[in-house]
Amino acid sequence: MKFFIDDLPIIFPYDRIYPEQYAYMCDLKRTLDTTGHCVLEMPSGTGKTVSLLSLIVSYQQFFPIKRKLIYCSRTVPEIEKALSELKRLMEYRIEMAETEEQREKEKNFMGLGLTSRKNLCIHPEVSKEKKGKVVDGRCRDLTNAATMNRSREDPGSVQTCSFHDNLGDIEGGQLIPQGIWTLADVLQYGREHGTCPYFTVRRMMPFVDVVIYSFHYLLDPKVAEQVSKEMSKDSIVVFDEAHNIDNVCLESLSIDLTRPMLDSAARSVNKLADKIEEIKTTDASKLQDEYAKLVEGLQEAAEDEDSFVNNPVLPEDLLKEAIPGNIRKAEHFVAFLKRFVEYLKTRMRVLHVVAETPLSFLQHLKDITYIERRPLRFCAERLQSLVRTLELSRLDEYNSLQKVASFATLVSTYEKGFLLILEPFETDNATVPNPIFHFACLDPAIAIKPVFERFSSVVITSGTLSPLDMYPKMLQFTPVVQETYAMTLTRNAFLPLVITRGSDQVAVSSRFEVRNDPAVVRNFGSILVEYSKIVPDGVVAFFPSYLYMESIVAAWNDMGILNEVWKHKLIFVETPDANETSIALENYRRACDNGRGAVLLSVARGKVSEGIDFDHNYGRAVIMFGVPYQYTENRILKARLEYLRDAYRIRESEFLGFDAIRNAAQCVGRALRGKTDWGLMVFADKRFARADKRAKLPRWINQYITETAANLSTDMALTLSKLFMRTISQNAGENLTGVSLWTLEDVERAQAAQRAAEAEADAAAAEQERVRAQAAAAGGGEPMDEDEDEDEYYAGGLSDTVLGAIDLDI
Amino acid sequence: MSTLCAARAKFKKLPGLLELTDTHLQWTQDGKKAPTLRVPHADAAALFSSKDGKPQVRLKVALFNDDEGHTFTFSAAQPVALNERETFKLELTNIVSRNRSTREASVLKPPTTPSAPPASTNGSSLRPPVPSSYATPSRAPSVSSDGRASGTPSNNPTSDFRLRKKVLVKSPELASLHRELVMSGQITESEFWEGREHLLLAQAAAESQKKGRPGQLVDPRPQAVDGGEIKIVITPQLVHDIFEEFPVVAKAYDENVPAKLSEGEFWKRYFQSKLFHSHRASIRSTATQNVVKDDAIFDKYLEKPDDELEPRRQRDQDVDMFIDLNATQEDHDETGNGQDVTMQAGKQRGALPLIRKFNEHSERLLKTAMSEGSPAKRRRVDSADPSDPWNHYSQIDLDDLHDPQASAGILLDMQDRQRYFEGRVGAGKSAEEAPRQAVDLTAALAEATQDLQGWSGNLAQLKIDRKAGEAALVSMTQNVAARLDVNKRKSASVPSFTGVADFMIHLLDDIPEDIFGQMRTCQTAANEFLRQFWASIYPPTSDPQTISAPATPAQKAAKAARMAGYLAKTPEKVAAIVNAGQAAGIDRQKIEIGMKPILDAVEKALAFWRTRKQPVGRP
Q1: Smallest Cβ distance to A14: which of B284, B354, B398?
Q2: Angle of helix A76-96 relative to helix A183-193, nearest 10 degrees?
Q3: What's the domain of life for this entry (chain A) (predicted)?
Q4: What are the sequence ranges of the domains in chain A?
Q5: Partners of A683 in beta bridges
Q6: What CATH class is the domain A1-109+209-247+445-484?
């Protein structure tokens, strides 16, 4: 359908639209118009992505200045889904175009998705590698500038990648025809034309209208510098499924070092030293050149594409000054690195927990090794330059050294918002030391700050962002629009239930003290058994942690509980291996499709909880066993909570509750897509009954939790569920149109009503103003409101034309 | 040539399909079109089958000219295979005994030459007059292996005693009614079931349905016997499952039995071995491993537990991009601090083999289910071709946002359409014609106009009687006042009975359990009599399901009379209960109110009976 919001024509690829989609688009447009940031919470499964793309593409195509759309999502399945959505939207727009000229314009619209080499490689050997790092390393060996130069000078002397080489013959910007290409499409195109999909996308980035990639490509400075540097300032940035954005921010500036990594780094340093010695005898001029260049100042010599160690520091902190003298010479730098690695190794020998600020770390480092802060800051840059000069191959083997260099640069750059924690033992009762040196970022605002500063419109949206003011507080920005939408339903399509106790009245909870209590384990088990009996097709169960899931699955099996489940459904369980879990997931879906029915056991915050949909028969019931709190004994979390309290006045319990509930809501929200879909949402923990917990749920879920459904025992919940399923399985019958579903006329009517309301409000304001002026003049008297109640008369019966034709000569 | 029965069976270790047609026993190897082996019925001399306890279900057919005969191994799961074999045995036993008798009769004719195809010539001459049940081509080929079709003496499920028993066992209420009425001799067995045939048919249908594989894991749990010993009962089904679930045990069995170990010895040692403990679906198995003693034979087959983070068996299966978790993991470099101890997957190492076992077991079950399903269904389920963009679109589509008329609907494919509709038209014409005489609008209006001529004058002449007007107004006011009153009372939440049911519950609240029980029994019994009574009065339903022969009018009349007799006693019974209740100190009115509906119903039936009997009674 096509309609207008203000003057902007919107093409929406469906015949009808949900009222919340319309409201969402209006607010989005307001944000784009005012060039500010916004936070929008839209119920899961009500077509958030399609509304977003539909509005923004309409916006891009309508206004003469093209603003690029940078669309970020969390996972590859979500990226692929967004690309498919976009592709379908553009097909619809082309079909709907009114003039030939317009059609041409729609056809020229271009959108691509970017992911790693591992996911986009089609080289027959390299793509077989299991590890992404190895694929990166081997790909660089085949495609980097030095290799290409050598191959140009003396074809056949070095091995290159034909898929990459073929791209060189094509004119830039023409690597792939116009249109929308999903990741699968790009791979297919690459296979058909013998071109490299990864470099196709990378090199087409400046020419596309929409680019879709994961959060990290914009938030992680190491990646952002390569990939997102050239994005213009007026681009529209969207973070979809952004409920975990603070974690991505923290991740991108945190580093863990372990002893094996330091050992590997030490080996790499030695290898570097050997290589320098070797080059000195064969080609000393190279090192001379590098030295000269470094004296002049740090300049990017080669293409960005093959840079290896990227600067982990945000662009604004990049100092445009020369690398300090004491590490300019290659051998000096290697010695410097060696010393630093040795120092870290000694630190690891301590057998008690140490927590310190970057400043105190630097002080200690200086006292012991005389390493100054300034050269440390350039560690990552200097290493990159050296690696390029030496033309090293198989860079994946230098991975640990790269981490150490990034660590050095980060620790010497930031003073506030970071903490170093050395944990000599993995757990409190472990006896064999396995030290980990955590460099933890505590402040999510640091990583996202440049994004807010650089781009004029940043949209943060998800199905679960409640409470809305939390995100602006944590990420330190001021939104111009901040909105949450209720879900309009003509009948309740989902039933949220809170089970607080088993049928034996023993309270259920995943609280640490009681979670392994046999009564609780049995009651959790009987919830699963009973729901697998009454729910058709798929049931998904989420646990608060891997540790708990693995132990409870074993316990259930030994108690014979799972035998009961086997009678009704197949059981699939998330495993540590992503590929194995994907196959289990695929089988789970097939079991749901063929009617056998299955149960999927999985973990909130785990691999499956993000980006996989359990709509329709893939998830008729989602059960959340326990409240998915984080492990509060975690020292990094403790430090983070302390920081949030001191810096942003967010209380510990408030943050922990917020974090647990957003994850629970996220799990449970996967069950819906569209308003004819239905599902049960079971929260099994007595703590969900508390009002302060429920208040943190998104409004669209919370509004449907009735007082009775907020505190149930298992048998009561089952009765309600059966009743719900019996009613929901009836044909929808009643007409949804007009209430939870709008046709074009409904949209226009709503717009007219809104205009009228606005006009009325204006008039009323003017009137009030006038009355007040009069009253002031008259010296008192309150204006009275008049309430007119007009009944409507329906003529009914004969139509006007018939009546008109009748000759009533009275 | 129709197939009497068929089953999947191995012959000479090759998988194939064994079929019994009305002339031959034949076996077709998988993938071949023509049967590899055809044995005419007349050749079958004897039947041998493996004992029920054996892991493999075999059937041997010895021939007149070849004592070695042919051996078939049924390849379905144990219980199914046993059923299938029973079906074959039953059919073949008939044939064999027939053959034997003809042989004996034909005075030891020399056996026919083995190469000669005896089916048409020899066989037919030898064959005695075939029992009609076999000759009738109408018999449907039954591929399903239900023992019922040929096993029970009668094919009519409604008179099958076994089925009746099952239905009664399933429903305790019906059973108690049955006890009260049939066992006490008030009505006969067949009368009781009359009108309840659907229950029996449903039971028969449920029984004939082929069950899929049960989902449970193969996990024999030892039972403790006194004296500290443990016992595991090995059933053929268990053996079959173990072989399927753990191919390594099947391999061990093949290699060691009976050469090195006897069957019993094999299982005894297996259940004591580390191999068994590693196969047990329990996290405790890792702990017991240290207790179990070494076993030279079985330890060879021992594998390392599959408890690494990455599975031992890597699978390079292309996963749909929409659920590819690995792609997310490889989308960007790993960054950030490691997960805390609770969020590291696979920390509980002992659980990993178990979890993997779950996934594999489910996958295996799913595969068998998929291969068994009808091809149409499989096509629908398997059509998910990930390369098809439409498939991806359907996964992101919000179907309720499309206009509803977009769906084309399903065309009703009807045979002989024309005749159907023409027939309808003929019948419906006269009925439809009446309302079709639509009111002619203009004429009606003209009439109305005429009526309204001079309306102002008429209206002016209209005089309303004052009293009548006032009375009307007063009554209207009263009406409004009454409604207001009711509303008020409602909102004041005066406890009020919303329905008869509530009222009854309230009323019966304080009746003691035994009296209440008596009332209930009386009620159900009277209801049953009523049901029987009306069933014998009214013409029988033309339901094709009721196979039992319709009773003759005379029988029906006799039955109705008997029922009327029973019914006539009902008021007495009620009176007895009322008295008993009064003795227990309950308001007799309460019981009377409670029993009133049934008494009314009985009275109605009896009144009907009386009026009806008179014309019959007078010749």
Answers
A1: B398
A2: 80
A3: Eukaryota
A4: 1-109+209-247+445-484, 116-206, 254-413, 495-725, 743-778
A5: A498, A624
A6: alpha beta
Model confidence at A641: pLDDT above 80: yes
Find out whether the peptide bond into A698 is cis, omega within 30 degrees of 0.
no
Tell me whether residues A630 and B340 touch, CB distance under 8 A: yes
**Chain center to CA of B584:** 47
In this prediction, the residues of chain B whose per-residue pLDDT falls under 70 are 1-2, 53, 104-159, 224-229, 281-292, 372-390, 405-411, 413-439, 489-510, 539-551, 613-619
| Amino acid symbol at A688 | F
Does A547 sit within 8 Å of B347, measured CB to CB? Answer: yes
**Which residues numbered 247-306 in B keep a CB inside 8 Å of some CB on A?**
281-284
A1-109+209-247+445-484 and A495-725 have identical folds:
yes
Nearest to B331 among A116, A550, A562 (CB): A116
**According to the model, what pLDDT value does residue B465 have?**
76
Question: Do residues A613 and A664 lie in contact, with contact meaning Cβ atoms separated by under 8 Å?
Answer: no
pLDDT in tens, B568-597: 888 888 888 888 888 877 777 888 888 888
Q: What is the pLDDT of residues A59-94, one digit of tens each?
A: 999 998 889 999 999 999 999 999 999 999 999 999
3-state secondary structure of A210: strand
Element (H, E) at A14: none
* Residue of chain B whose Cα is closest to the Cα of A78: B322
Q: Which residues from A are below 8 Å from B384, CB to CB?
A: 593
For residue B383, the distance in angstroms to the closest alpha carbon of chain A comes to 11
pLDDT of residue A527: 96
Backbone angles phi, psi at B344, to 5 degrees: -85, 115
pLDDT for res A533: 95
Q: Would you say the C-alpha torsion A700, A702, A707, A712 has a positive or negative sign?
A: positive
Q: What is the mean pLDDT of residues A307-328?
A: 67
Identify from B216, B318, B337 which residue to disrupt to test chain A contact, counting A C-beta atoms within 10 A and taking the largest count. Answer: B337
User: Across the interface, do A570 and B362 touch by the CB < 8 Å criterion?
Assistant: yes
* Predicted ipTM > 0.90: no
β-strands B70-74, B57-63 pairing: antiparallel
Question: Which amino acid, residue A735?
Answer: N
pLDDT category of residue A240 using cuts at 50, 70 and 90: very high
Q: Report the alpha-carbon distance of residue B427 to residue A704 in Å, rounded.
A: 54
B328-379 pLDDT per residue, tens: 988 888 888 888 888 998 888 888 988 998 999 999 888 887 776 555 555 5
Closest CA to A644 of A656, A626, A632, A634: A656
Angle, nearest 10°, between helix axes B588-617 and B500-508?
120
Structure tokens at A192: 């058909």
**In angstroms, what separates the C-alpha of B321 from chain A's closest C-alpha?**
6
Query: For testing the chain A interface, which of B314, B318, B323, B378 should be mutated: the one with the most A CBs within 10 Å?
Result: B323
pLDDT per residue over B209-246, tens digit each?
777 777 788 777 777 666 666 777 788 888 888 888 88
Dist CA B308 CA B310 (whole Å): 5
Contact yes or no for B392 and A222 at CB 8 A: no
Question: What six digits make up the tokens of A343?
Answer: 């120092």
B3-151 topology per CATH? PH-domain like (2.30.29)
- Taking an 8 Å cut-off on Cβ atoms, the answer to whether A583 and B317 are in contact is yes
